[in-house]
Amino acid sequence: MTIRKRDPPDNPALLALWRRSVTATHEFLTEDDIRDIEPDVRTTLPALEVWICASVDGIPVGFMGLNGSRVEMLFVEPACRGQGIGVRLLDHARLLRGALTLDVNEQNPQAHGFYLRYGFRETGRSATDAAGRLFPLIHMALHA
Q1: Domain locations along the chain
Q2: Which backbone phi and psi does 3 adopt, to 5 degrees?
Q3: How far, in Å, CA of 118 to CA of 95, rounded?
Q4: Rounded to whole angstroms, how far apart are CA atoms 17 and 132?
Q5: Is 41 within 8 Å of 15 (Cβ atoms)?
Q6: Is the Cα dihedral 92, 83, 50, 32 positive or negative?
Q7: What confidence tens digit (pLDDT) does each residue in 32-61 have?
Q8: What confidence tens digit (pLDDT) does each residue in 92-119 have?
Q9: Which CATH homologous superfamily contains domain 2-142?
Q10: How far apart are alpha carbons 143 and 53 in whole angstroms?
Q11: What is the pTM of this model?
């Protein structure tokens, strides 16, 4: 697997990967919630510095969106979970930025646990997500 920077033609494949990943891991979201959030992801994705973890045949199996030292999104193809893709992407972000911050949905204990195992620590909590939806967030930080 290789990590490469996103090219604009990758965006539709990344949006589809996002949808598959969220459907598989965010059990607290309804299909209507996912449909409501998807336009925000479609708009935000091109504005971020995006890094892709690609299989040997070049197909994206995971991606991470950075805004400075903030991890805005990290998603892995459901069939590829547990293969170290998320760790590789975070390792890459640490090489680029050192200290990192992120928010994780409180209702996504698998992701929260992943970030804790990686070394992130909780720094706070919000009752809603950035768009004001009732999806509580845990704020986390990783020191360099």
Answers
A1: 2-142
A2: -110, 130
A3: 15
A4: 24
A5: yes
A6: negative
A7: 999 999 999 999 999 999 999 999 888 999
A8: 999 999 999 999 999 999 999 999 999 9
A9: Gcn5-related N-acetyltransferase (GNAT) (3.40.630.30)
A10: 23
A11: 0.93
